[in-house]
Amino acid sequence: MADHEDDAAIVRKVENFVRDVVIPYETDDRRDDHGPLDALVQEMRAKAREAGVLTPHIRADGTHISHRATARVLRASGLSPLGPLACNTNAPDEGNMFLLGKVATAEQKCRYLDPMVAGNGRSCFLMTEPAAEGGTGSDPSMMQTVARLEDGEWVVNGRKAFATGFAGASFAILMAKTERDDGAAAATMFLVPLPHPALVQERLIGTIDSSMPGGHAVVKVEDLRLPPDAVLGAPHEGFAYAQVRLAPARLTHCMRWLGAATRANEIATDYAVKRQAFGKPLIDHEGVGFMLADNLIDLKQCQLMIDWCADVLDSGEKAITESSMAKVAVSETLFRVADRCVQVMGGTGVSHDTIVEQVFREIRAFRIYDGPTEVHKWSLAKKIKREALAKS
C-alpha cells in the first residue's frame, strides 16, 4: 500500500522495482501451463512489500489514488507479465478490490478486502458460464446459475466457466440469478470463502494465455448454502454492481497491457538496432523501421485514450461508454503493436527467448476477455441509435 507520497514518485518506485527485481524472475521455472505458482508470487510480493510497492494504487489509509495516477502505476507494473502479480495490481484481484471497496460492509471488508490489499491471498470472480449450456458470457441476462431463499438461507446451484484463479483462491465473488419480490428477474452477488465443498473444480481450461495463477476453471456449484450476510451489497443488485466493477476493470486491463506492449517494443527495438541483415542494422531497413515508428504512434494513442477515460472516471461519471471505447481501441491497437514486435524479431520473436511471444498471446486473449471487441461495438451502436432517434 502506498502512503501519501507524490503519485509520480509511486510510479517511479514501481517501474524501478519491476525492471530491477521482477524482470529477472521471468526465467524462473516455478510455473505451470496456466501461470506462475503461488510460491513464486508470494516471494515476489515479499520483496514488493519490503520495497513499498505492494498494492501501490491504494494508500495506507485505504483510499485509492486517482484513476489517472493508477493508469501510470499499472502501466509500470505491467512492464513484466509478472509485475502485476508481484505488485498486487493483477486481475481479477484489482477489480475485486475496487468492487469490495465500493459496496462491501465493514465486516466483509475486514474479512475479505483487508487481507487481499495486504497481498495475503487471491480471489476470483464467478460470472461467466459454459457456452455449451447456454450460460452467460457477454450477456449476463443468460445466466443459468440460480440462488433461492430457503428457510432464511440462500441456496445456489449452477456451473461457472473461465473462473480465473479459482484454484488456490481464498474467496470468490459469485453472481447468480435471483427473483425480486414482484417476480422480476435480477441477479445477486455473494461472497464465498474458499475452498468450499459445494464449489467443485471440474477441470482447468487450456487457453492461449499463461499469466494467471490457478488458470481458468470450470466450477460446479451444487447446493451451496449461504447466510444472508454473504450477500455482497444488496440482494438483486448484481447487474448494477457488475457495471461498478467492469467499467474501471476494463480500463485497468488496458493500463497493464500498455506496459507489456511498451516492454515488447523496447525488446524489438533493441533487437532491430543490434541485428544486422544485408549489410546494415535491421532498423535501417524501411520495412522494419516503419513498423517500429507505427508502434511508437500506436503506444502514444493508447496512452491518450487511457488518460481520457481515466479522467472521465475521476470526474465521478460511470464511464460505461468510455470504458467500452477504450477497451476496443486499446486491445486492438496493442495487438497490432505486439504483432509487429514478433515480426521485427523473426524467429526470435516466436521463441521463448524473450517475453515478446507471451505478450502477443496475452494481448490476443485480451481482445476477448472483459467483453469481445464486437460486443462493445454492438453496445456502442445501440447507444448511437438511441441518441439519434431521441434527436429526430
UniProtKB/TrEMBL annotation:
InterPro entries: Acyl-CoA_dehydrogenase, Acyl-CoA_Oxase/DH_mid-dom, Acyl-CoA_Oxase/DH_mid-dom_sf, AcylCo_DH-like_C, AcylCo_DH/oxidase_C, AcylCoA_DH/ox_N, AcylCoA_DH/ox_N_sf, AcylCoA_DH/oxidase_NM_dom_sf. Keywords: FAD, Flavoprotein, Oxidoreductase. Residues 124-200 form the Acyl-CoA oxidase/dehydrogenase middle domain. Pfam families: Acyl-CoA_dh_1 (PF00441), Acyl-CoA_dh_M (PF02770), Acyl-CoA_dh_N (PF02771). SUPFAM superfamilies: Acyl-CoA dehydrogenase C-terminal domain-like, Acyl-CoA dehydrogenase NM domain-like. Its cofactor is FAD. It comes from the Bacteria. The keyword Chloroplast does not apply. Residues 237-383 form the Acyl-CoA dehydrogenase/oxidase C-terminal domain. Residues 5-119 form the Acyl-CoA dehydrogenase/oxidase N-terminal domain. Belongs to the acyl-CoA dehydrogenase family. Homodimer. This is Acyl-CoA dehydrogenase. It comes from Sphingobium agri.
